[in-house]
Write a structure and sequence with these properties.
This protein is an alpha/beta fold and 340 residues long. It contains eleven helices and 13 strands. The strands form four sheets. A seven-stranded parallel β-sheet has the order 3-2-1-4-5-6-11, with helices on both faces. Strands 7-10 form a two-stranded parallel ribbon. Helix 2 links the parallel strand 2 and strand 3 (56-59). The longest helix is centred in the N-terminal third of the chain and has 21 residues, at 96-116. The protein is globular, with a radius of gyration of 19 Å. The relative contact order is 0.15.
Length: 340
């Protein structure tokens, strides 16, 4: 794909910042909009250090239609990668209205701004949560969908919105990237995952325990119908995931309408297997307790990656040991995250 100007919503966040690095390395110009609710401009400074050039940054909430339109006025955007959104399953159960407001309203505003400026190419950050509690694994993109948490439903409803938009106007070309479980960090250790408050996801929680920020890891549920009783997930290195976005942008030229694509490794790992791998990377046991199940979690989810390989011409390269090594390298260098 020739060099273009790519708008990245939520580009200061965990996955967004790593994708910005890969976009810049590929020769693209990058424009970031982010409301900084769970991210930091320090990440973008470090993106510039890694890539040797910077992004154009606008502190904008997608729900602010006027400010968003001004970003499109200021830049000749070719394509959009849409990350911006609240993303914690457990939190979404507690504050569902905030999730619908932020994720769905923000996306509607983005689509309107894109159409007003005749930009119709989009890569959307979706999630495997749209599959709900799958009956069969590995999961193909043709599996039944029906999320079990408000977070998952926002992703599901946005997918339906994007399909409706593409059906109504053939200019829309959209790839729905259904992520499995992103972990790890850039191998430099300078950018990584820095969640606000107590992490909702396993790997940053484990690494914050390892570095001493938190006392013990809580493993949610030990009585699932899995070999060791803990949930099984498909963990993917964030750098592999970032590369998938470049592949998806390139694939837009080869598709019509709206295509869903799983992005994972195709291999499931249990929570306790991840804890063991993380402990190995750290060089010490990570203390943990098995506690009650968490609302919205399902027992076993991992991907069939055939469509990613055929349509995107992409597959994951890095394994669980790589993920733990790089995540620990980030946490060790940045014990307090970007605040350090």
């Amino acid at each position: 794909m020739a060099a273009q100007t790519i708008l990245v919503t939520g580009g200061a966040g965990y996955i967004g910042s790593h994708t910005c690095v890969q976009l810049l390395a590929a020769g693209h110009d990058v424009v970031v909009v982010d409301n900084l609710s769970n991210s930091s401009t320090v990440a973008l400074d470090r993106v510039a250090d890694i890539a040797g050039r910077s992004v154009a940054f606008h502190e904008v909430d997608l729900r602010d239609r006027v400010a968003l339109a001004e970003v499109f006025d200021d830049h000749d955007v070719d394509r959009v990668v849409h990350f911006a959104g609240l993303k914690a399953v457990g939190e979404s159960v507690e504050i569902p209205v905030a999730y619908y407001d932020n994720n769905i309203v923000g996306t509607v505003n983005l689509l309107n701004a894109m159409a007003d400026h005749e930009v119709f190419d989009l890569v959307f950050s979706s999630s495997c949560t749209v599959y709900g509690e799958p009956e069969v694994v590995p999961i193909t993109e043709d599996a039944p969908i029906g999320a079990v948490s408000p977070y998952g439903r926002t992703k599901l409803y946005i997918e339906e919105l994007l399909r409706d938009a593409a059906a109504a106007d053939k200019r829309w070309r959209t790839v729905l990237l259904r992520y499995f479980n992103p972990v790890g960090a850039h191998p430099s250790g300078t950018i990584g995952e820095d969640p606000t408050g107590i992490p909702n996801n396993l790997m940053p929680y484990a690494m914050q325990v390892a570095i001493g920020r938190l006392e013990r890891l809580r493993v949610f549920g030990g009585d699932y119908d899995t070999p060791d009783g803990t949930c099984i997930r498909d963990y993917i290195h964030v750098v592999d995931l970032a590369d998938a976005h470049l592949a998806a942008l390139g694939a837009l030229d080869r598709i019509e309408g709206c295509e869903a694509v799983n992005v994972g490794t195709g291999t499931g790992s249990s929570v306790l297997e991840v804890v063991a791998a993380a402990s190995n990377a750290v060089g010490a046991d990570i203390p943990h307790d098995v506690v009650d199940r968490r609302p919205g979690d399902v027992p076993c989810v991992f991907a069939d990656t055939g469509r990613a390989e055929s349509l995107l011409r992409w597959s994951a390269r890095l394994d669980l040991a790589d993920m733990c090594r790089d995540h620990w390298n980030w946490q060790r260098q940045n014990p307090a995250g970007y605040g350090s």
